[in-house]
Each structure stands twice: as structure tokens, then as C-alpha cells.
TrEMBL record:
Keywords associated with the record: Cell membrane, Membrane, Transmembrane, Transmembrane helix, Transport
Origin superkingdom: Bacteria
Gene Ontology terms describing biological process: transmembrane transport
Gene3D superfamilies, per database record: MetI-like (1.10.3720.10)
Main location: membrane
Name of the protein this chain belongs to: Polyamine ABC transporter permease
Domain ABC transmembrane type-1: 60-268
Protein's membrane topology: Multi-pass membrane protein
Length: 286
């Protein structure tokens, strides 16, 4: 079988040109802008400004912390939903209905969903009114404009990505491996912990990376649910561009956020590749 290398090169050039036009070039522009000094020259003064003020480190840490919480919450909820959809629901029509229920919120604007959570978490919202009627609290809780409200709103938005990613992996796991473990005396819980969950780790890792990356760069939901009392990096970058008009420092903040995210993703990939028993699990799936 002969390979048409010219056609292959053309097909390969299309995605490469797309990446070059929509990622490499904009990133290069932002990088150059971050190295531009106010006098028209080049230097690292913008990064020196960033490193000299602990406020920016606090904002970065808050952003990463919120993103980690969102990833954890999305994983817990997403795995349960994915497992129910792929293993416990036998009727095909019901499974499709659950998939539609998971996917449908993705067609709604983040702004609309965030304002919906403002109503739910408000002092007169569903959560506070339910707790008051149940006698659990005697006065409304201040749920809005907090880290908790941001985590709740973003977890709701990010969970579908986790569900779909994990469900795709769970569907492809050979069920005979689980049956074999149970035939050898393993309980359903042990079979899940020793067979199903380890084999589903590629989906967990992929879903976690997707959710974490989207959470780090999220702007709409944190800005709405924080009420201006909490600041994440995306909000800080927007302020530099839209309010303060310090484009060079805004570019430096954007580069710092991107590099931090890339480093964390690289460390996560390295850790997953060094995971004990990975080679054994890969051999079991062949």
C-alpha cells in the first residue's frame, strides 16, 4: 500500500496552520507585549512588577485553589453519574435521556446559568428558604459573593465535561474482567476498586485536565457569583485591559497564568505516566 505523501502533507498542514493562526501567533503577540517596556523598549519590568507584589500571588493561588475544588467536585459528581449511566441503567432509551440531560446545559449560556445560581444561592433563594423552612437555620446564610458560590456555580458548569469523558472510558471497559474478579471471590465493591476504577483512570485524568484548564481561565461565572468581592486571574487580566489600560502588564499576567497552567498539566501528565501498575493495567485491556 503506497502512501500519498503529498496528500498527507496537505492534510497535516491544515491543522498546523489552524494552530499557528489561532494559538501560536496570538501567544507570540501577547508574549512580545508582556516584554514591552513603557518607553518603547523591551525588558522584564512587567514580570518584576508581578513578582514584587504578593497580591498577585494571592490571586493566582485563589484561582488555582478554586479550580482544584471545582475539579474535585466535578470528579465526584461526574463519576457517579457516569457510572450510573453506563452500568446501572439498562434501558437504552433511559440512558439516552440521561445523556441528553447532561448535554443540554451546555447549550445554555454561562451567563444565564450563573444568574440562575445567583437566584438559588441568594438570601431569598431556594437553598436558604429550604433551610429556613426545615428549621436547620434561623437566618439566611451568606452564600453569594464567596468562594463557595464560585465553586458551586463552576462545578455545575464543568461537571458535564467530566461525565462525558469518564462515561466514554467506562463504556469501553471489558465487563468480563469485572466478572472474572467476582468469580474469584471479589465483592462488587472490591471489583470496582481493584478493576473498574483503575481501568477508568484515563477518563478521570482526561476529564480532570479538561475541567481544571477550563476552570483556571473561567471569567463569567467567577465575576458574577463573586459580586466583585473575590478576584481570579481572568478577572484581573480583564481589569488591566478594559479598566486600567495597562496592556503590557495584562499580557504579563496572561503569560504567567498560561505558563503556570502548562507546568501543572505537564506535572500531572508525568505523574500519570509514572502511576504504579499502569503497565499492568494496559496489558489487561489488550
Amino acid at each position: 500500500m503506497q502512501i500519498d505523501w503529498r496528500a498527507a502533507a496537505v492534510l497535516l498542514a491544515i491543522p498546523l496552520l489552524f494552530l499557528l493562526a489561532f494559538f501560536a501567533v496570538p501567544f507570540a503577540v501577547v508574549m512580545v507585549d508582556s516584554l514591552s517596556a513603557g518607553d518603547g523598549g523591551f525588558g522584564v519590568s512587567q514580570y518584576a512588577k508581578l513578582l514584587s507584589d504578593w497580591y498577585y500571588f494571592d490571586v493566582l493561588w485563589f484561582t488555582l485553589r478554586v479550580s482544584l475544588w471545582v475539579t474535585l467536585v466535578s470528579f465526584v459528581i461526574g463519576y457517579v453519574l457516569a457510572y450510573v449511566m453506563t452500568r446501572m441503567v439498562q434501558r437504552r432509551w433511559l440512558r439516552r435521556l440521561l445523556y441528553i440531560a447532561v448535554i443540554t446545559p451546555l447549550f445554555t449560556s454561562n451567563i444565564v446559568r450563573s444568574f440562575g445560581w445567583m437566584i438559588i444561592l441568594g438570601r431569598e433563594g431556594l437553598v436558604n428558604q429550604s433551610l429556613l423552612l426545615g428549621g436547620i437555620i434561623d437566618r439566611p446564610l451568606a452564600l453569594l459573593n464567596s468562594e463557595l458560590s464560585i465553586v458551586i456555580g463552576m462545578s455545575y458548569i464543568m461537571t458535564p465535561f467530566m461525565v462525558l469523558t469518564i462515561a466514554a472510558v467506562l463504556q469501553n471497559i471489558d465487563r468480563t474482567l469485572e466478572h472474572a474478579a467476582q468469580d474469584l471471590g471479589a465483592t462488587p465493591v472490591v471489583s470496582f476498586l481493584k478493576v473498574t476504577f483503575p481501568l477508568s483512570m484515563p477518563g478521570v485524568i482526561a476529564g480532570s485536565l479538561i475541567v481544571f484548564t477550563l476552570s483556571v481561565s473561567a471569567y463569567v461565572t467567577p465575576s458574577i457569583l463573586s459580586g466583585g468581592k473575590k478576584t481570579v486571574m481572568s478577572m484581573l487580566i480583564y481589569q488591566q485591559y478594559a479598566s486600567i489600560f495597562d496592556f503590557h502588564f495584562g499580557a504579563a499576567l496572561a503569560v504567567a497564568l498560561l505558563l503556570t497552567t502548562l507546568v501543572l498539566l505537564a506535572l500531572s501528565s508525568i505523574a500519570s505516566s509514572l502511576r504504579p501498575g499502569k503497565r499492568k493495567l494496559l496489558g489487561a485491556t489488550v
